[in-house]
C-alpha cells in the first residue's frame, strides 16, 4: 500500500483542523485564510492572534481563570508587546494587578512591569489608562524602565505618578547609571531636585500654620 503523498497529508491535516470542537467559536475553527486555528484562548494569546482572542472572549472564556505557564494571560501579552490583545483582555475584565509566578526567571511580577522591562511604551500606556482608581504599583515598572534605558516609559510613569505615588528614584537612578543611560540619570536628578524643593516648601508651610 502506497504512503500518502505530502500534498495529500497536508490536505487531510487541513480537513481535520477545520472541524469545530464542542463549544469552540465557529469563526476560530473556520478554515478562512486569515484565521489560523487555535485550540483555546491560551493558545490564541500565546500566538498573538487578536481575532482568535476576541472570538474566545465573545464565546465566554474567563480571561482571569485561563493561565499560560501558570501565569495570567495578561502578563504574557504585555511582555510580548501585544497592545491590542492587552486592550481586549483588560476590556474583558483581566486583573491589571494580577501577579506572575515568582518562581520563574522572567523579570517583572506584573503586566505593567513586564511591558516596561521590554520597552513596550504603548502597552504601558494602555495598562496605566485602565488603572482608573490608581491602584497599580508602578514602582517595579519604573525601576525596570530606568534600568533598561527606556526613557519614554520613565517619563510616562513619572507623569502618571505626579507626586501621589512612591517611586524608587534613587534605585532607578543607580541602575540607569550602571547601564550608562545618561539621559535617564539627568532626568531623575532633576526630578529628585524638584521633589526635594517641594518637600522643603511643604515643611515651611507647615511651620507657618497656627495649631
How would you describe the overall organization of this protein?
The chain is mostly helical. It has a domain at 62-206: Ankyrin repeat-containing domain (Serine Threonine Protein Phosphatase 5, Tetratricopeptide repeat, Alpha Horseshoe). The chain has 12 helices and 2 strands, in the order H-H-H-H-E-E-H-H-H-H-H-H-H-H. Strands 1-2 form a two-stranded antiparallel sheet.
What's a quick, concise take on this entry?
This protein is mainly alpha-helical and 211 residues long. Helices cover 58% and strands 2% of the residues. It has a domain at 62-206: Alpha Horseshoe (Serine Threonine Protein Phosphatase 5, Tetratricopeptide repeat).
Amino acid at each position: 500500500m502506497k504512503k500518502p503523498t505530502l500534498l495529500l497529508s497536508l490536505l487531510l491535516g487541513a480537513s481535520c483542523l477545520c472541524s469545530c470542537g464542542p463549544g469552540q467559536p465557529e469563526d476560530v475553527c473556520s478554515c478562512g485564510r486569515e484565521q489560523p486555528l487555535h485550540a483555546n484562548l491560551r493558545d490564541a494569546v500565546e500566538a498573538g492572534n487578536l481575532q482568535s482572542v476576541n472570538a474566545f472572549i465573545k464565546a465566554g472564556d474567563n480571561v482571569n481563570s485561563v493561565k499560560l505557564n501558570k501565569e495570567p494571560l495578561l502578563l504574557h501579552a504585555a511582555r510580548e508587546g501585544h497592545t491590542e490583545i492587552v486592550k481586549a483582555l483588560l476590556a474583558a475584565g483581566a486583573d491589571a494587578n494580577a501577579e506572575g509566578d515568582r518562581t520563574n526567571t522572567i523579570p517583572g511580577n506584573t503586566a505593567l512591569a513586564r511591558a516596561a522591562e521590554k520597552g513596550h511604551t504603548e502597552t504601558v500606556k494602555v495598562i496605566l489608562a485602565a488603572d482608573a482608581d490608581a491602584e497599580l504599583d508602578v514602582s517595579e515598572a519604573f525601576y525596570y524602565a530606568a534600568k533598561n534605558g527606556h526613557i519614554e516609559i520613565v517619563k510616562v510613569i513619572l507623569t502618571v505618578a505626579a507626586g501621589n505615588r512612591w517611586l524608587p528614584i534613587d534605585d532607578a537612578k543607580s541602575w540607569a547609571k550602571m547601564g550608562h543611560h545618561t539621559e535617564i540619570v539627568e532626568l531623575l536628578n532633576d526630578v529628585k531636585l524638584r521633589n526635594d524643593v517641594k518637600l522643603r516648601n511643604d515643611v515651611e508651610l507647615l511651620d507657618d500654620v497656627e495649631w
